[in-house]
Queue: 3 jobs
Job 1
Amino acid sequence: MRWATFADSLWYIDALGSAAKLGFEAFCRQDYIGADYGLVDCSTGAPLPDLWSLLLWTRLTSPTVLSAKVAAIQPIKGVASSRAGIDSSGHVEKEVVRSNLRLYAHCTPRTAWDDLLAADEDEHVMTGQTTLVAINLGSKQIDLELNTAPNANVTLWQLAPSNEPGIDLATGLNGTGVSINGRAIRLQSDGGVPDMQMFARVLAADGSGSDTQVQLAAQSISFLVYRDSSDSHRCGQS
């Protein structure tokens, strides 16, 4: 038997985003439990990485699909970043960054707004929320700059391979352990799913305008909920 590892989650969420972008309304999963690619382990019922990423996908994305693209990739000397990747000789590897970055955007479901309002009592601030799903397939961090509405915060859930063993002894990309914003996630002692809001991290704009900097860790999946400054009414309340 082969367990689904964190590496599988990278293509799984990419496949969900691609299918939604192409207009598909359903995505069939081979197995919930059992065989070689279940969402949970058939012996223990412990969640595999795809289950955690799927939970965030279903809670933070709605059927309304938006367009997401990188406006520009600019060279930043001496670092590998979301706007540019730099090799050892200093040449800009723009196409490498583009090929390693996957972006998908959806309107944020009203149910997710309700959860976020627990941390922000100003309800009208939540109107027009966008969920951006950013997948970094590369082995280097990418620094993403979001054009957010003035004074808007970005709520981040970033899934990455865990250094703690999961079902087996393997760790990292080929393991079954998952961390969200650096915290390992697992079932509660009573077998229940933890409150995903506990793992959220709020990012503030950089103060020089309406841009917010987000660091996309290598080989990670990031869910970002924010108000888009370009057209916040696309996802207004209905």
Job 2
Amino acid sequence: MAKKCDNKSVGMLFWKNDELLLIERKRFPFGFAPPAGHVDDDVSFEDAAIRELKEETGLEAEDIKLIIEGRKDNPCRRGGQWHYWKIYEVKVKGELKLNKDETKQIAFVPKNILSELAQKTELYNKGKISENDWEKTPGIERVWLDWFKELKII
């Protein structure tokens, strides 16, 4: 049985040499995004962040620092239409490992490529990219476009 949306999400920003770790989601919501996920039954947002980072990348959080939080409208495959987010900057240990169930690819992305992916999302938001084309070659996941702008990453 699929879990119901708990309207609570976490995201982790991991920078390496001015490049941000992003995954390309295999399932809705399609797009490139930092490791992220629902809080679910975890005791805290921080516990959920540590769990999601490990599940999606194989990396273990050594240090985790809250940098922003708030509510964002964003559709969820579990049925929700919004989430209360806590976004963390993390320092990690371990080796990157692709989660083949959830992720098409994983990479460190420089800011110029983040900007290109953001421009693609803007075109998608304006209806200039079809759903089919978006699923095949997406830009930044919509909710993350909002966070990246708010955080002045792009």
Job 3
Amino acid sequence: MEFFLDTANLEEIKTANQWGIVDGITTNPTLIAKENEDYHKRLKDISQIIKGPISGEVISTKYEEMIEEAKKLANIAENIVVKIPIIEEGLKAINKLTEMGIKTNVTLCFSANQALLAAKCGATYISPFLGRIDDIGQDGLELISDIRIIYDNYNFDTKILAASIRNPYHVYQCAKIGADVGTMPFSTIKQLVKHPLTDIGLAKFLDDYKKAFS
């Protein structure tokens, strides 16, 4: 499973990239607004750090405006992927952008039917928001599993990008289910490294070394 970092913070991106585990970046207007930076400039800065896919989102909800925004985003760097919401106008835009050779990440997906439509329109990625589904008392991981079955049934090329990942358990289960990508905040990636037995074992090894060789 590929790991995408869900952030617009350059220090987080640089740090995680040094670990050698970051395959791409997902952003949105909210994340970039937190950085007090121009939207397009921040995407450009990220593209100079990360060579993998970088998702930048349109803010329009009309087809023609989505296409114009998407073209501007795609011109920022070769690895920009355009995030499009799964709405009727969005489906038209996904279909057109696919014809134009512009990669798309279909966002705000909350059902398997939406994921099916996105794949039929040629989306590069589908982003089911599993954490937000959990928030309303449903099972976000079940949605990831359902999409995996449907995509495998029909050999769709669209990649499942598990979004709204909240914790290491989400990561573990998405990997078991077969999500192609998991995107998560830096805080979750840091949690993946941690285990109390690792800390205990390391402390003992260091203590034993000091006793034997100091």
